[in-house]
Amino acid sequence: MSRRAVLWVAFALVHVGVAWLGFVMPNNPTGDVYLVYAPWSRRALEGTVIVGISVPWVYPQLALLPMIAAQALAPVIGYPLAWVIVITAADAVAFAVLIGRAHSVGRTTAAWFWLTFIAVLGPVGVYRLDGFTTAVAILGCLWLVGRPWLASILLAVAVWTKVWPVALLAAAVIAVRRRAALLGGAVVVSALTLLTVVAAGGARNAFGFVGDQTSRGLQVEAPVSTPYLWGTLFDSRAFRVSYERDMLTFQVTGPDVDAVIAVMTPLLLIATTAVAALGVAAAIRGARYATLFPPLSLALVLGLVVFNKVGSPQYLCWLVPSLVTGLVIDRRRWTLPAALALGTALLTQVVYPVMYSGILAPALVPVAILTVRNLALIALFAWMVARLVGVVRVPSRAGRVPASVPAAAT
After folding, report:
1. Could you tell me which residues come within 8 angstroms of residue 39 by beta carbon, excluding any fewer than 6 positions away?
2. Is residue 361 classed as helix, strand or coil in its secondary structure?
3. Does 359 map to a domain?
């Protein structure tokens, strides 16, 4: 059997296995799909309530598209399985582009990493919208050099599906020389999306997702919530975990929590701006795409995770596009960061869905595991910032574009 055939067999086994785990693992990892995605998309098709248009929504408007796509098969196989097929189809397109003919060692290494990541993160990476945006973002990152217009369009579509790929787009604008093409594609997608929203009568809710995010409390899994979780173990009267019905998430409360909530969004903006400034400094000093984009994009994405008030387990998907790109370009330099990311994904699955009840009613072992996961994410963020500092100091380091990366226009 050829290397390419082995990869596709592994692709099928991983996706079938993770899809099955969603139905048998505890704490209902498929819940978001049939409890919120299905009703949102069904009402949109019926024309009764169109989230993001007639009412404010936590997601950008294009997030409805994969949800509606799953409705095509829902009457036959049920919405959760239909959703898995949509995600698997998106993954298959990105996987096919990634491996090509499976001749490149860097690309096959990246493919195995992605499949392993899907397996160790578990069903939450498939039964959430982030899984769809991850596939689209991988495609965009793979085409940044050779097809910047198309890459920009794909990344902009991902941004208007779930905001986090804006970190990848920002890193690309800094690191890739054909910035006009990258900005142009993003502007076109954004303009078409907003014009459609306004034409549909949703001007008031066009950016409702921004307000929804900034007004949120501290979600239980977020790194900033870790001290509050430990507080519940030692003083359950002052600290507690509670359910937020509006956002459908569990949050922590305790002493000075409102002050922490208030400072987190400005802190996130400061941290990501500082990382972007490092990237700009490296670009000005002559750092090339192959050197700059992977650490810059991963640092920006990790900044969105580490300094976020929300810490949903599916956020770990966000790490994949940057690491896949890094492995394609220079697998030796990116093997250790990829391994650390796999460790954080595995710990995330242990926390959710396996031991999640020990987070909601905090118990020592689950809280300790979540703490280790959060510390690992912080360490990975610091590592990428250190790499960026190194690129600023020595911008020519590892600066060539390998044959595994499309060589048109760096």
Report:
1. none
2. coil
3. yes
With bands split at pLDDT 50, 70 and 90, how would you rate the model's confidence at 405? Answer: low
What is the C-alpha separation between 15 and 265, in angstroms, rounded? 35
- The yes-or-no verdict on residue 274 having pLDDT over 70 is yes
Residue 210 counted as domain residue:
yes
Q: For the segment 83-129, what is each residue's pLDDT rounded down to a tens digit?
A: 999 999 999 999 999 999 888 999 999 999 999 999 999 999 999 99
Residue 131 near residue 356 (C-beta atoms within 8 A): no
**In sequence order, which residues have a C-beta less than 8 Å from that of residue 296 and are 6 or more positions away?**
171, 174, 175, 275, 276, 278, 279, 282, 388
- Residue pLDDT, tens place only, 243-259: 887 767 899 999 999 99
Quick one: what percent of the chain has pLDDT higher than 70?
Answer: 95
Cis, bond preceding 337 (omega within 30 deg of 0): no
Contact assessment for residue 109 and residue 404, using Cβ atoms and an 8 Å cutoff? no
**Three-class DSSP category at 219:** strand
Q: Which residues contact 217 (CB under 8 A, 6 or more apart)?
A: 244, 251, 252, 253, 257, 261, 309
Which amino acid would we find at residue 398? A
- The answer to whether residue 402 is domain-embedded is no
Instruction: Please give the pLDDT value at position 398.
Output: 46
Query: What's the domain count of the chain?
Result: 1
**CB contact at 8 A, 169 and 25:** no
Domain with 71, as residue range(s), is 3-393
* Contacts of residue 346, Cβ cutoff 8 Å, sequence gap at least 6: 120, 121
pTM: 0.95
Residue 408 has pLDDT above 70, yes or no: no
Between strands 249-253 and 240-244, the pairing is: antiparallel
User: In which residue are the tokens 């226009």 written?
Assistant: 409
Query: Considering the domain boundaries, does residue 410 fall inside one?
Result: no
